[in-house]
Amino acid sequence: MAGKTDREPGSPKSSNDASTLPQTSENEIPTSTSPFVVKGEISRGNPAKKQVIFTFDAGAGTNSAQKILEVAQKHNLKLTFFSTGKFAEKNPELIKQIAAEGHEIFNHTYSHPHLTQITDEQIKEELDKAEQIISGLIQKTTKPYFRPPYGDRNSHVLEIAKENGYQSVFWTLDALDWMSDKTETQTKERIYLNLKPGAIILMHMGDNITGNILDEVFTYIENQGYKIVSLSQGLI
What we know:
The protein has 236 residues and is α/β, with parallel strands linked by helices. Helix content is 35%, strand content 15%. The chain has one domain (37-234): TIM Barrel.
């Protein structure tokens, strides 16, 4: 059974707020191409290049952590991670290792709250505390990108984040690796069927599926003529 993860569902929390941003489904990619921002949020990379961006959220377990890093090294890739401050506190050597191996680490808040349910000051504190902890470990800021926990955000949350130096990074496809009722085969097929230039794919470090399938997934994608790039590379 997959380990317990930070469980970020692909759908944002429902809300009656008209400014709540809709989910970007795996079959619907935003049409904005430069600078790939829709309503102040990045949800895809450059669609003009045959490349995809894999992002890995770190908020709970480390089940797949070392396998992800091993596969990245095997394929000579630089990947993108979003870590909570609490995760970094609990796993400082892992965070240092990720950075030392050349991967990107951005902000996933300190405690993984629903940002639409807390105050402006609390949002700022969540971002600031994670930044302080992570940057203290890797000697590099987590700015300018953050990922809202659970995909729960609205235009006001994005504005507060912007005021504090951050831009939200959503995803084009949630691989659903965090769901305990999904199999490795289902997760692989979900990725393959929704492979598109510029896609940002969400996976997690806390489940077992990710580590078990990643080498096969990367090999398949590269055999289809795609490059796997980091977020920074994929926005160019």
